[in-house]
Amino acid sequence: MSFPSWVNDIPELFPFSRGGIVRLxxxxxxxxxxxxxxxxxxxxxxxxxxxxxxxxIHLVYPGAQHTRFEHALGVFETCGRYILSLLSDKRSxxxxxxxxxxxxxALLLAGLLHDLGHYPFAHLLEALHHELDDHVDLLAEFLRGxxxxxxxxxxxxxxxxxxxxIIKQDWNQHSLDDICFxxxxxxxxxxxxxxxxxxxxxxxxxxxGPIDADKMDYLYRDSLHCGVPYGRFIDRDRLxxxxxxxxxxxxxxxxxxxxxxxxxxxxxxxxxxxxxxxxHHAGRAVTAMVNRAIRASTHIYNKIQREEMVDLLINRSxxxxxxxxxxxxxxxTKQLMGLIHQRRLYKRLLxxxxxGDKDLFELLDRLRWDRRADFDAFNQTVVDAINxxxxxxxxxxLAIQPxxxxxxxxxxxxxxxxxxxCGEQGVLSNDDQYVGVWEGIGNDFERYVRKIRVxxxxxxxxxxxxxxxxxxxxxxxxxxxxxxxxxxxxxALIKVDQPLKSKRGRTR
Length: 508
Hints:
The protein is of the alpha+beta class. It has helices at about 15-20, 35-40, 45, 70-85, 95-100, 100-115, 120-130, 140-145, 145-150, 165-170, 175-185, 195-205, 215-225, 235-240, 260-280, 280-300, 305-315, 320-325, 330-340, 355-370, 375-390, 435-450, 460-470, 475-495; strands spanning about 20-25, 30, 245, 255, 345-350, 405-410, 420-425, 425, 450-455.
């Protein structure tokens, strides 16, 4: 099947023959035309050079020094591969006849710009403070240049054009609606009809879906830089060859049966990378320490102060944020950041997974992500109970301090949404083998990969191991800690679930 004639006029889809390239690890050439260069050279895009892709994971995997800048270029290149593959699929004839050059170029731009709103520790702050905008929702403000009205540290040099003006001039985009929709699912101002939204959702699913370009790049790139093999298992070429439009929903991409194994490898790579990299126990210890340090140093409890906090971070590098935190006057923060500088990380006191502790997971999930839950108060309650029961007396005769025990509850991440697999005789049924493998990987992810951990200050952890004569807790102490956590969580949830009342005593 031949491409629509206008496809040949998009140089970024054929970078090796009709435009320049910029080299990325490993042996990947991302498109680098003159109009791409104008975007990449913009101060807001160059800012991504300062934001590490994996934050402080380099304390665990020394090679993890790559940045959001590199990842954005990688997603841009991968989006081009997805586009060409889908446009060449004979089953997707209706989509190919309808899609426009403007939409394809908007998707390329969305791939290039999808992380423009990122800043150091963004995911951490968004999780801690739900009133903060998700970084993807900042995209339109970055493109228009109005982001500086909210965060003065992002004020552009005089006479610097906005990215929106560059896009409209070079890319024939009359608005930012499609670009923002492909990134966040929200157009800036347009109101799509149901038919338009379904059609554009096919393009969006190439950037944000179960087997999208974003995941494909970061799984591969993070694996490469961390020196682990898992993310490199994905058979990219085979998956590209099997892309098609989902004939059931007609609003997302699917794959043909020949791509089933590559799809399963995709799911396995995601599960393995979370297990061995993203949620590695030492990496989660660093996250818990920084989490506590930020809260201890700022005591940010209202939206204005939270916005000011982001302004302090959004134009800094990860290293500069760590240095800034280290210079704060709060002694708790100084101690935590000092330990990070020395790479003396908190140690695991207790590790829980859903196989044996599902009820505790449900309690802590409700507490951790409820907007009204005060997680620090829960942490304090746990420490008070540990001191009252003397559970760690043999390691620390004096009272344990609140910041010396940290509880880490990662976001609940469900299994990947189902991908439709199309066989020669139509869509494969739910009884076919692929469903069991795909869903099995997703279910195993929640059961085995996601863990709740209670961390302990390294000095106390070492003293506890010495007093026990072993690295692992005896069953009796472990059971007492689990029971203590459950009781404290139930007490905290009683407070959270109480109706909020106004000063006049009325229920809101």
